[in-house]
Write a structure and sequence with these properties.
It is found in: Cell membrane. Keywords: Cell membrane, Ion transport, Membrane, Potassium, Potassium transport, Transmembrane, Transmembrane helix, Transport. This is Trk family potassium uptake protein. With 429 residues, this protein is mostly helical. The protein contains 18 helices and two strands. Helix 1 packs antiparallel against helix 4 and helix 15 packs antiparallel against helix 17. The chain is globular, with a radius of gyration of 22 Å. The chain is 62% helix and 1% strand. The protein has one domain.
């Protein structure tokens, strides 16, 4: 309800004539789509952010991104702390669920860290981007661009102001823009729990199992993804084939990082080979990490699924990660999230294949991008029909909340089981 209220408020503001450069009210469905994309930190747009929306509209969008990225409960807690209002047990329990924590202990302290980390990282990145872009544009515009893109990229939203749906393709060779944006995407995508662990490491001298899994899987996906994209696109004249070695390496790594649910790109995504496009779909589906600004099934879920497969092949009963055994409940949760996500993506993709005049790969790419709140597109977003815009908006909303949150909110409340059925045998494989 919190996210829905923010989206509705953003929609109403974006429909105002002052929000765009035409001076006419924006169509309600387009305003709803944009507000949903911003609040759910996705980045899919039906109107170009840099040229269509006025400064007022762009400020509305970036505020929706900031609130949506940090989370409704986090922002509500911020206002409560500013007003010096007591955080009740009910509020702490809601925060525990919102931040995907196992306990309410230290939850308010974690929220303070979330706000502090966001301010420091976004501020530092804004300074670096402002300095870089002040070489290409007036300082005032560079400062505005630096702040906007720092907030957008840290929250994994992918909105940009460069116009004509170009994203960051004009900076494919630029190491400063590439490294700053990649750092923003990764730091926003690994989650605030991991950031807190890293900051406290000098004092505690330990990293939690969650942080170890997130950091190792994130590093693996980025390096492996960059290698795959480099190999598949090396000779493609529409992407890496036209670049020198430095551009090829930067381009491959950036396109490997951005499916972490960021939505920015430095290469022509529609010009990629189908193998690369399908591989990016897989990366988008995996997404970022729990407690972050990103979406997808999450890196920890993917790790547990891979661990379960390896354990089964080795004939072992337990999944062991970094010398820790995982509880069976974690495995069931990972399988449930993955299956619900697959069913949701496939169902919507099948419906869109009948309402939209595009290839199934393009539709699957768009649907996965919406569910994982990534924002990457092969060019379908601006061509969506009314039904397509509604379905993609619902996918962005469901992806930001998470499949389990939706299932718990809409499903029947569980009661106490008074008995267990006898164990049965079924043949598998």
């Amino acid at each position: 309800m919190g996210f829905a209220s923010i989206i509705l408020l953003g929609t109403l503001l974006l429909t105002l004539p002052i929000s765009n450069t035409t001076g006419k009210p924006l169509a309600f469905i387009d305003a709803l789509f944009t507000a949903t994309s911003a609040t759910c930190v996705t980045g899919l747009v039906v109107q170009d952010t840099g040229t269509f929306f006025s400064t007022f509209g762009q400020v509305v969008i970036i505020m929706l991104i900031q609130v949506g990225g940090l989370g409704f409960m986090t922002m509500a807690t911020l206002f409560a702390l500013i007003l010096k209002r007591r955080i009740s047990l009910r509020d702490r329990l809601l925060l525990q669920e919102a931040m995907n924590q196992n306990t309410v202990e230290g939850i308010v302290r974690l929220i303070r860290k979330v706000l502090l980390f966001s301010l420091i990282i976004e501020g530092a990145a804004a300074v670096l981007l402002t300095i870089r872009w002040s070489m290409d544009m007036p300082f005032g515009q560079a400062l505005y661009f630096g702040i906007f893109h720092a907030i957008s990229m840290f929250n994994n939203a992918g909105f940009d102001l460069f116009g004509d749906f170009r994203s960051l393709t004009g900076y494919v060779y630029d190491p400063i823009v590439n490294f700053v944006v990649m750092f923003l995407i990764v730091s926003g995508g690994i989650g605030f729990i991991v950031l807190s662990d890293l900051v406290d490491f000098k004092k505690t001298r330990r990293i939690s199992l969650h942080s170890k899994v997130v950091l190792s899987m994130t590093a693996f996906l980025i390096v492996f993804g960059a290698v795959v994209i480099f190999v598949f696109e090396y000779s493609n004249p529409r992407t890496l084939g036209s670049l020198n070695w430095g551009g090829k390496i930067l381009g491959a790594f950036f396109q490997s990082v951005t499916p972490r649910t960021a939505g920015a790109n430095t290469l022509d995504l529609g010009g990629m080979r189908q193998a690369s496009q399908f591989f990016i779909i897989i990366l988008m589906f995996i997404g970022a990490s729990p407690g972050s600004t990103g979406g997808g099934i999450k890196t920890t879920t993917f790790t547990i699924i891979i661990g379960a497969v390896i354990s089964m092949l080795r004939g072992r009963d337990d999944i062991v990660l970094f010398r820790y055994r995982l509880a069976q409940e974690r495995i069931f949760k990972a399988l449930t999230i993955t299956l619900i996500a697959l069913l949701l993506v496939m169902s919507v993709a099948m419906i869109l294949s009948t309402t939209e005049d595009s290839s199934f790969l393009m539709i699957l790419y768009e649907t996965t991008s919406a569910f994982a709140t990534v924002g990457l597109t092969m060019g379908l977003t601006t061509k969506l029909s009314l039904i397509g815009k509604i379905l993609i908006s619902l996918m962005m909303f469901a992806g930001r909340l998470g499949p389990l949150t939706m299932a718990y909110a809409l499903g029947p409340k569980k009661g106490k089981e008074l008995y267990r059925h006898p164990e049965g045998k079924i043949i598998i494989g």
